[in-house]
From TrEMBL:
Role according to the record: Electron carrier protein. The oxidized form of the cytochrome c heme group can accept an electron from the heme group of the cytochrome c1 subunit of cytochrome reductase. Cytochrome c then transfers this electron to the cytochrome oxidase complex, the final protein carrier in the mitochondrial electron-transport chain.
Residues of the Cytochrome c domain: 5-110
PROSITE patterns: CYTC
Native source species: Timema podura
Protein name: Cytochrome c domain-containing protein
PANTHER family: CYTOCHROME C (PTHR11961)
Family: Belongs to the cytochrome c family.
């Protein structure tokens, strides 16, 4: 049986492993030099590479990927499995339960209506 991700654990993982590059707030300008990744507000259900003004890699901008639990789990395991030329750094989410916890957290935290 597949384990359900735990959003509380996912939050701690996000703060440690993701928040120095990604904001969850849309208000933070995408070119904020402190944040090297695009903001993740509204992430789940949106197309990859869709934040205006963020200098995505060509592959991410032109991909037809939609972010949902399945694609996020693959991306966190190895970004290059889903997008060959992404410039997202290899993030060491080696443990499958950690990936599931982060995705459970993202499903809540990136949805402004559910915050
Ligand atoms: C060192 C900075 C950095 C860290 C740390 C980082 N990312 Fe990223 N992330 C990026 C960059 C840069 C991109 C854009 C990649 C591209 O354009 O190919 C990105 C893209 C993404 C995207 C796609 C966003 C979109 O708008 O389509 C998701 C989802 C994502 N990262 C999730 C995560 C998660 C979850 C973590 C923590 C486990 C994480 N990232 C850690 C830099 C980072």
């Amino acid at each position: 049986m597949r384990r359900q991700g735990d959003a509380r654990l996912g939050k701690d993982l996000f703060v440690k492993a993701c928040s120095h590059c990604h904001s969850l707030q849309e208000e933070v300008h995408p070119s904020n030099p402190r944040l090297r990744g695009p903001h993740l507000s509204g992430l789940v259900g949106r197309r990859a590479g869709a934040i205006r003004g963020f200098p995505y890699s060509q592959d991410m901008r032109h991909s037809h990927l939609v972010w949902e639990a399945r694609t996020l789990l693959q991306f966190l395991r190895n970004p290059n499995d889903v997008l060959a030329g992404t410039k997202a750094p290899y993030v060491h989410m080696k443990k499958s339960p950690d990936r599931e916890d982060i995705v459970a957290f993202l499903q809540v935290a990136t949805n402004p209506a559910r915050r």
